[in-house]
Structures are given as structure tokens and as C-alpha cells.
Amino acid sequence: MTIAHDDIRLDAAPADVRVLSMSAALNLALADAIAADPEVVVFGEDVGALGGVFRITDGLTERFGEDRCFDTPLAESGIVGTAVGMAMNGMRPVVELQFDAFALPAFEQIVSHVAKLGNRTRGGVRMPLVIRIPFGGGIGGVEHHCDSSEAYYAHTPGLTVVSPSTPQDAYSLLRAAISSPDPVIFLEPKKLYWGKGEVDTSTTVDIGSARIAREGSDVTLLAYGASVPLALEAAETAAAEGRSVQVVDIRSLTPFDDATVTAAVRSTGRAVVIAEAPGFASVASEIQARVFERCFEYLEAPVRRVTGFDTPFAPPKLEHWYLPDVDRVLDAIDSLHWEDGA
Amino acid sequence: MTIAHDDIRLDAAPADVRVLSMSAALNLALADAIAADPEVVVFGEDVGALGGVFRITDGLTERFGEDRCFDTPLAESGIVGTAVGMAMNGMRPVVELQFDAFALPAFEQIVSHVAKLGNRTRGGVRMPLVIRIPFGGGIGGVEHHCDSSEAYYAHTPGLTVVSPSTPQDAYSLLRAAISSPDPVIFLEPKKLYWGKGEVDTSTTVDIGSARIAREGSDVTLLAYGASVPLALEAAETAAAEGRSVQVVDIRSLTPFDDATVTAAVRSTGRAVVIAEAPGFASVASEIQARVFERCFEYLEAPVRRVTGFDTPFAPPKLEHWYLPDVDRVLDAIDSLHWEDGA
Amino acid sequence: MLHEELLPRDVAVQLIDPEGTAVDDARYARPDTDRLLAAYRGLVEGRRINDQAGALVRQGRLAVYPSSHGQEACQIGVALALGSEDWLFPTYRDSVAVIARGVDPAEAMVLLKGDWHSGYDVRANRVAPQATPLATQLLHAVGFAYAARRRGEDTVVVALCGDGATSEGDFHEAMNFAAVFHVPVVFFVQNNEFAISVPLSRQTAAPSLAHKAIGYGMPGQRVDGNDVAGVLAVLGDAIDRARTGDGPTLIEAHTYRMQAHTNADDDTRYRARDEVRAWVERDPLTRLRAHLVDAGALTPELEAEYAAGAETIAAAMREALNTDADLDPEDLFRFVTSTRSPQLQEQWQLLRDEIDRETSAAPQTAGGTR
Amino acid sequence: MLHEELLPRDVAVQLIDPEGTAVDDARYARPDTDRLLAAYRGLVEGRRINDQAGALVRQGRLAVYPSSHGQEACQIGVALALGSEDWLFPTYRDSVAVIARGVDPAEAMVLLKGDWHSGYDVRANRVAPQATPLATQLLHAVGFAYAARRRGEDTVVVALCGDGATSEGDFHEAMNFAAVFHVPVVFFVQNNEFAISVPLSRQTAAPSLAHKAIGYGMPGQRVDGNDVAGVLAVLGDAIDRARTGDGPTLIEAHTYRMQAHTNADDDTRYRARDEVRAWVERDPLTRLRAHLVDAGALTPELEAEYAAGAETIAAAMREALNTDADLDPEDLFRFVTSTRSPQLQEQWQLLRDEIDRETSAAPQTAGGTR
Ligand SMILES: Cc1ncc(C[n+]2csc(CCOP(=O)(O)OP(=O)(O)O)c2C)c(N)n1
Ligand SMILES: Cc1ncc(C[n+]2csc(CCOP(=O)(O)OP(=O)(O)O)c2C)c(N)n1
Ligand SMILES: [Mg+2]
Ligand SMILES: [Mg+2]
User: Fold this and answer.
1) What b/e string do you get for C88-117 counting C-beta neighbours within 10 Å, with b at 16 or more?
2) A93 touches chain C (CB under 8 A)
3) Under CATH, what is the fold of the domain C3-321?
4) Most CB contacts within 10 A, which of B99, C64, C127, D154?
5) Of all atoms in ligand 1, which is nearest to the CA of residue C190?
6) Contact D344/A310, CB-based, under 8 Å?
7) pTM of this structure
8) One domain for residues B24 and B172
9) Is A309 near chain D, with CB under 8 Å?
10) What is the pLDDT of residues C151-160, one digit of tens each?
């Protein structure tokens, strides 16, 4: 499933499949989840009448009423802490935190309670809640609007952390997240909100599974979120240069699909990890370390990573220098000790 | 410099050197810093009359007055946010957050401001502040009192993150942290608070430098904080089994001393990273990935890591199963593809 | 409600004074004698639980114990004021309230014993896990109450915190969410004058903590936290209001922490013995006892019965805590998520191997696992 | 101060009504004509800056602009009330106040243009960087004021935030720290009735935001935020109190955000046009103009002079923003810490190599860098 950037007309698609932007797919997933389960409620800042600053909750209040989708006071710890109490009492809250950096006020609630309450109570209390966070850059946003904070969550035991890279996965993963008995941090790559693709609402996806986004035999690119289309683009370019590049969409950061990733890298013997977040002590370093350890005997070259710099996210006009791009990925591929000496 | 657990009498030590517990060394560093610079102030919860729950600020209010060491209302974001304002206005605040988990309410202030204000203002505003956090387990503490959250900070660009493993480094690193024009997260391994060692107050240490804690030629153990004495103990045991084990005390997590670490591992060709925190997307994974990438051609075996499990920190009575211990380190060493087939 | 009615009184509500004399109040009625007897029984038990736990700490059977000695009127008041369908959201210091609510003492002590993070079934007695991160549980209470009201239940939630916790951002957010969503929550602050070593005067400059309520548009009230009659009346009133849809209330109960913060604390460092001694005269047990004896309601027989009941609880605590629980290392991995991830399974296998080797090695080489 | 004196009035302070008529007040004196003329000049300039910035957004020269159209009386009131040694802690919406305080418009717009995160020297005009994470800057203001007072300076710090931001935990912690440490800070809340799309009624159930003050033991006051005379008087009073050691104050200025949250927002989704239109009649400029014309103070010559001054600022903004700044990629690495770490140096070398290759490749293969 790849992202089709063309505006394919709906009637051109088969009956049970629609062509949707990722934002529309997320909106549909929320609507379908609300319709399917009376305990599902959506709330946060500006998710009601406005439909969210990215319009992901567009029309939900109108369609399902204030009881199912509503605005809260402006306080992220309040939003998450209240959701914890609701989840303790049988509801399935799906909350939106407006941007990565504005999830930080809720960090104590997330780490000390959302992640730990199930364990604390020996499973007596589960936390079926979803925290949606628009994440990453590439949209020219000002400071605090473009961070990638997946490492904070992925490092925290007890949290499931997922991020889709296609409208299909956006739909299916969000449905899976809402159905999960465990708390899920759902990271929505802002840059991909408007990209379109086919969505089959009957397709399900298992949390914990990676996806082979492109077959290839020379080198494996490991990516998630907005780095997946980048990896695919790099693979395309590399193909033109004669290299067969495999792309794995990690998709579920925790739990991690070691089986798929290890098999993929063993099959090619070379790997590059791609992610936007600063690289130090990141999910990218985790993947790099895991792959190194599990594929050591199969590696033709050190696993490389292409990540954001260890600097605060760049201001809009410097963003293009900050973000991983095709050239940087191709450079990393080139460095993988090729026999042809490239 | 190793930790002497015996209570060596003060008069037995040379003139300018004292034998102190790490907690006393930290207390001395604070006192000396307060005495040396009128802009240094120490504050937080219970740091005044009580002297802190670990007594690190013992006697400071009495000796230097309320103006130099004082209690605040119980609010961690308030403590750090106020410190930010003071630092903007020429002061050098040294704040104590009582336990790792209770630093989390301050996370937004730390990530969005402490780490970024210098960059935001193109260096116009610097953040010479130190955030002291007792960290790690091994003391039988109940939930929320034994976490290791260095990954959250080390992953955040703009923060310097250090942790001492000896009284000497506790003193020297804290003095260096307080003198630094940049914000420092100072992690104090709770388990080592009471261990003693010599402290020469004239010894300085550069932030950003690792320390060879033990020479060895067969394998390198990379550790920090409470894992350093563990690594030394493991090295001792391994020596008895005929393996020469080098121990590097990372000491400065960011900036990271690539030069020392890379040279060390290249010299032995084998490495194990040890840390208490959950391993996923951690500082340990970062070190593992860096070493893999930089020492690839020199490695006889995959770099291993021995870390806490990816679970919430264990309750007191299960702690011994959770924490890395000598046996687990020795097992990891044993797995490093030895020619003798061990 | 008029704005002025949101403000607390200048003097805390008190229905029985420290000498045991009844004080009449225009708004709050004194609970009847039966209820006061039940409360007294609770106080006796609560005090005994505190003492017993203290002893168990000294014997090394409990890792730590934050005592509510001196605060028993709050603890018991809360437990009695709650209806059986209501919920309690307590802190680490509220073990007495938790036990008075019906939780088995041994299960309540699991956290402090160090066997697990929380030891009781929260639904069995409708008591949330005791919270350690300050003020965070207040938000959980709000969400919990929201869900109950949404289902049309008439559940009320009482959320506890200390004076120090009112300084945390989460206190503010919880009060505000509760008021905006008009949920059936009562916030009951035990102002015991200290947050570990920090006195109230360093915590706030407000006329009282209850004065914070008007800033959220909810009523605030002050009560003498050592007068269980007052606590029952003020709390009962707030619970009734919450139940009938009148929204949340903030109550500040003024009391005093008679012992150190926990056994690990040394309170001589930050408060004078005289100050502590002065509060002995305001002890919640003494005054209620005097009141009930004067009223002829508390007979020596009843006293003996209550004391015996308290002894039974203490004995059960001793027995439970003197037994070492059979701890299973696999528990570390069992409850993290509802399905164990491949990563955790791998890690458990690593640990299991270690333990297996240790077990088989143990007979030969004591202490070593290799 | 008596407890009652900490409470705000039931009706916001107003010294000039929407028709321009003077309103007498027992406590607050109306600023004299010269000061009102200066304020009017500021309002004219402020409005022009808002309009110009809006136009620059439409032309793609600014990435985003949160307009204070309608709130200029607050913006200018703040700038004028501050002494030259005082400090301002503004938000993203306070560009007009920042510029009125003396910051070069081009430098003030650097954030919104996208060139860097903050573009001015904070010390030159004593203006902290405009804060985006809500309410966080209030704590910085408290710490800053603490340091100033500690040095014996008589600096006052005015910290700004919106109605929505009062719901954040940091608001609470800042108010409390300020009151407990008794620092010279004035918290000035621009209640413009919306937090993006969320109306005040969803934000709080309090009688007013100023009622929160008593919960911290500081005075709260309400002022008509579209009446610059009222704003100057109430703010001036609070600043004087802070300067003379009487501690912090919370002021709620009631105003209205006439435009969408930012250009990226669509306010037709959440508020009726009628509601917006109704506020046109309470415009801060119209009423002050009427008042000053009636008083014979504002002559057509002066009006023309003010308009010309505003045009000059607008022209400077256009010029500055129509120029593309020379951006240096190395800046990404320069300011992260005061000494560049080996890691950052390595990363910069990587980027520099890329750019070098791009530059040398450019002539031959346009667009490609390899
Ligand atoms: C967020 C957070 N910060 C700090 C602590 C450490 N701590 C535990 S109890 C306590 C004092 C609490 O005082 P108060 O709220 O008055 O309750 P009390 O202990 O007096 O019952 C502190 C600082 C904590 N548990 N949580
Ligand atoms: C901590 C945080 N959460 C969310 C946001 C996103 N956000 C930016 S402005 C805004 C509304 C703020 O409303 P208010 O405080 O009333 O100020 P106004 O914009 O009306 O001036 C929101 C939710 C943010 N900047 N910071
Ligand atoms: Mg207390
Ligand atoms: Mg607003």
C-alpha cells in the first residue's frame, strides 16, 4: 500500500475501498470507532466545533453529539489524567494532544499512570486509552510544532507506540489502537496528513507488526512515519542507480517486530535506519543496536542511521537542512562497503 | 579512584584530600559553590531545614542563610520554571527534584525551555542551571522512587547529562555542572550515596569526558552511575576466571566521549554496555549503536547490553531480579564469541 | 449559588470542641450518637492500625509507613461518609481510610511491605490504588466520576490529597475540570500543616486552602479535621450535593501530622517538640471519647469491645506481615501490557534461565549462580 | 490586606465607556490627557501593525500571525505602564506590545517569518522571548522578578497570558510561587473569550478569572480590556504595589479576539458573526478617539501625525519582511550549547559536506546533490 498523491476519484475505486487522505482516514476511523462502541469518546483541545487544528475530528461532535466528542479546558495533564480515570471506569477515551511539545505537560500522567496502572494493579485496572499526537516536521511549523518525541514514549515500559505512514494504516492502526486494552500513543505524521491512498475499512492490522513496504535485495531501509515515503523515494532513486532497496515500515515502535526486521536485514546484509527525531538515545538508535546485535554475522557493513540532528528542531526556513532527505539516505546507502567500491 | 566502603578516618588521608561518602561530597560541592559565587542558590522541596530527603543539602541553610538555600512550594514545574527565570536574570540556580519520577511534572519546562532557551535566543540568554535528581534503584524503594530516566534527558538536545560513580567525581562533576553556562541534568545514583572514597577538592573534571575506571585488554565494559561499581565487581570476578576486563565510566552521557569509548573498544574488540534503565531506546542502546558503528571492523563479537527490563521498575522485594547484577554481566561477557569457545 | 457562598467560613466548622463539648452550627447538624459511636470505633481502630504499622516498620516487616496518627478523624470521616457505591481515591498516607473502607489490611500493606505496587482489588471495595505522585489522582477521580455520571449512576467520588499537593499543577487542573464538567467529586484536603518538612506557610499565602475553590466556581469549606463530627457533617453535605447534581466541592480539613512524614523522616529537624505536643490536646480520639462518655453513650463495655476489635485487626496485620509472600519473578513481566510482547518474553526467558541455573547451582556452590 | 480586598469587583473597572464618555472611579484615576494621547497613538500604531502583519501573511511573507486586533488597549496599556527598567514576558499574541515596548518590528517578526525562534536581544528592551508553550513563561517571570528583587533592584515584571492559559498547571504554580515568595510580578490575563475555538465558558466555571487570585493570597482585579484608560490605571496601580514591595497581583482584562486565532484558523466554525460584530462597538480605538476628540485634545493634525507614524512602521515591516534573510545552516549547531559538542561538530560536518557537494554540483545538474 503506497500513498497515491493524485486525487483519485472515489468512483474509480472498488466498492469497499475509498481513496482518502490520511486525515480523512483518521477521521473515518474515529467515527467508525465511536459508532461501534458506546464507551469510545474523543476529547481534547479544539476537537469539538473546530474539528481539531488538523481537522481530524471534523464533524464528530455534530454527528455524534457533545457526549462523544468534546472540548476540554486547556490543560494537557488534565486531559490525560481525566482520561485515566475514565478508562479506570470502563470508558475508552481517545484524546488529542495538539502538538508533540504540547503533550509534555502530560508527561507525568503518561509515564507514572497511563503506562503503569495496569502493572500496578496486577492487571486489575487496564488502560484502554489512546493518546493521539500529530508529530514530526516538514510542514514549516514554528518552534514547538514540529518535534518528534517518540523516543520518550517508546522508552517508557507499558506504552504501545505506533505511527502510520499510509492512509490504510492510519485507519487500521487507529481502529486497532482504540480496540486495544492497553494504552497506545498514536503518532500522526503531520507531513502525511494530506497524502492520499486507498483505504479498505475491512483491513485490519496487528499492533506489533512491521510491514514490508517495498521488496529489495541489496539493502534494507528501516523507517516509520514520514520517513517511510522518504525511504520509498530513496529506494526508487537507488533503483535507477542499479541498487535493489528493500523498505520496511516499522509502524509499531513498541512492541517491536524483531522477526520481520531481523529477517529483512539478514536477507540483504545491509541496513539504514531513518527517522526525523534527534538520533541520540532514540528509537533509531534502538533499531540500529537491535539490528546490529541480531544480524551481526549477516552484516556486510555497519548499520547506519539517518536522523535529525541532535539540535532543537529547526525554524521553518532552515528545516530543509535539518530533515533527513533522499540525498542523505543515498549517501548512507553508499557508505555500506559495497563490493563495487561505491 | 575507586569507592572505599570502609570508613577510612579523615586524619589518615593526605592534607588536601578527604575521605567522604558521595552524599558528603555532593554536600561539600554545593557548599563550596555557594561560597565561591554569590549567584549560586539551592532550592527545591525539603532542601532547607531538613537538608533534603537524602541530606545532600544538609546544613546549607543554617550555614549560608535562607537566601542561598531554601524550600519552595511543592511543585516541580514551578521549581524548574522559576529557576529558568532566575537563570535568565543572572543567577545560577541549583535545584533538587526529589526522585526521578517526581521530576516528570517539570518535563515540559525542561524540554521546551531549559534545553532550548539558549538556542531560541541565539545564545542571548544562557541557562546556567543545574537540576539534581537522585536516580536509579538498589535501595529497596517503593514505586516511583527508583526509576532511571536518563534517556529522556539525554535524548533532548540542549541538555548536558552527567552522573558520577565516585565521591571524587560527585564533587568535581557537580562543581563543573554549576560552573557550566549550560543547563545540566545531574543524576545522583542513590545506591552510591553512602559509599566512600577520597575526594580531592582541587581535582577538576571536564564535562564530556569518560574515565577509564579499570584497565583491561580482553573486553570493555561501558557503564555509568551505579553500574560502574557493578562493572568493576564483574571485572574482578572475570579476572579470577582469567579474563582481563576494561571498565569505562561514561560519566558524561551528553556530550558523549566518543574518542575514549571508541579507542577503548577498538583496543579490546569486545564490549558490553551496562545500565539500570529499561533498555529500549535508551542511553545503553545509543552507546551500543555508536560502538557498533564506530568499531565495526574491530569487533570480535556483537556488542551486548545488560540493562533493566522493559518493565516498570520492580517493587522492593523483586528488585534483585530486575537489576543488572554481576552474573548477568558475566553471562554477557561469556557470550562474546571467545576463541576458547566459552 | 452566589459568589459569596463559594467562599469558606473564616473559622473552620467544628461540631465538637477539643474538650468534647458540643458546638452548635446553623448549617451543619451533628451526626447522631450511633454514628458518632461508629466513628469512635473507627478512630480506635485507625489509631491501632497506625501504631501497629509503626511497630512493623521497626521490626523490618514494612519497608516504610506514612502514618496518619493524629489525622484519624479525617480518615474515618471519609470512610464513613462514603456510600457503598461511592469511590475513594486515596494517597499513600490514607491506609487507615482504605482499611476502614473495607480493604483487607494485609492487602492494603502490600505496597508498603514491598511485595507489589498495589495489593488490593480496586473494585471490591471501590478504592483506587493509593497514589504516590502528588495530586495526580485528583484528575483520575474527576475522570472516574465523569464516567459514572455518564452512565447515569449516582456514584460520588471522594479524592484525597494533602496540603502540599495543592501546590501541584494537577490539583489546579483537577479542580478546574471538575467544575467545568460539573462532576460529582468531593476534594478533601487534609491540611496537616506539613509537606514532609515544609510548613503550610511556605506552601501558600492564601487565607486558607479552601479559598482556592471560588477560583474554579465551586464552593470551598473549612472544617476542623480533628473533629470527626464536623468532618462527617461537612463531607456528608458535599457528598449529598455532588450526588444530587450540584457539582464538586473543595473541603480543607485542618489537622496535624503527629509523627514524622514516614519512619525514614526525622521531624526534629524542622519542627519544635512544643508544637507537636500542643496538638495532643486536640487529639481526635480524646475529644470524641469525652463527648460520648459525657453523653452516656460510650460505656466501658463498648470501649472494651472496640479495643478488642482493634486488637483483632492489629493481630491480623501482624500475622499477614510476618509471613513472607511467595513472590514470582515472572510477575515482573505479566502485567505490563495485557499481551506479553516478544521483547518481554525474551527478557523473561533470560531471567528464567538465570534463576534456573541459580537453583540448580545452589546445592553445589552456595551464593554463586555460574 | 483583608481577605475581601483580594477579591475583584463584580463589574470590571472602566474609566472610559464604549461611547467615549468618562466614567469616574473611587479608586482608579483616569490617566491625564497627554498619557491618553500617547496611548491613542499606540493604539493606532498597534492596529496598523496587526493589519500589516495580516497582509504580509496573505502575501506569504509571514508564516503565521496571531493577531491582537481588538486587544490593542491591552497591548499598548502594558507597554506604556511598564517603566523602562521593568521587564515584559509576552506570548505569541503580544507582538504589538513587544514592538510598542521598543523592539524593532523586523526583529519581533523573525519567529513568525520562520527565520529563527526569536529574533530580538531580550536585554535591549527588557522583553523576554515570546512564549509559545502556554503559561510556562509565567514561571520564568516569577524567577526573573525574584532575581531582580534579590539584587535590590526595583524592577517589576509584567507577565502576559490568555484566558485559556489560566487552565494550565503552570499558571497555578506561577501564581503560587509569586505569592509565597512575594515577588514583584503582575499577571495580566487577556481574556479575549477564546482559546482558539474554545469559549471561556468551557474554560472555567469561576465567577471571573480574577477570582482565582484569592486562592493564592494575592489581590485580583477585573478591568475592561478595551478601555486603555482602565488598563493603564489598574495595571499602574498593580505595578506600583509590586514596586513598593506589596507583592504580586492578578489582573483580568476582558477583551475580545476580533480575528481568527491565527490566519490558519477558521473562526466561522465556532462563533457567530453577530457575536464578533457586536464587539466592533466596543472597539478600543473608537472609544478613546471619541473621548479625546470630545476633550478637544485630538486634533486632525495629531491624527494625521499618528497615522503617518503608523505608516512608517508598516513600511518598515514590509521592507524588512520582503527581504529574504541570509540564513546560515551552521546556525543550527551554533547555539545549542555554549561549546559545540564533538557530536554536533560531526553532524555539522556532515551537513556542510552535503551543502558543499550541492553547491559544486548545482551548475551541472540542477536540483540534484549527488
Ligand atoms: C509529584 C511528587 N513530588 C514529590 C513527591 C515526594 N513527596 C512525597 S510526600 C511529599 C509531601 C506531601 O505533602 P502533603 O501533600 O501535605 O501530604 P502529607 O504527606 O502531609 O500527607 C513529597 C514532597 C511526590 N510523591 N510526588
Ligand atoms: C501547552 C500548550 N498547549 C497547547 C498549545 C496550542 N495552543 C496555542 S494557542 C492556544 C490557545 C490559547 O488560548 P489563550 O490562552 O486564551 O490565548 P489567546 O490565543 O486567546 O491569546 C492553544 C491551545 C500551546 N501553545 N501550548
Ligand atoms: Mg501535609
Ligand atoms: Mg484567549
Assistant:
1) bbbbbbbbbbbbbbebbbbbbbbbbbbbbb
2) yes
3) Rossmann fold (3.40.50)
4) C127
5) 21
6) yes
7) 0.97
8) yes
9) yes
10) 999 999 999 9
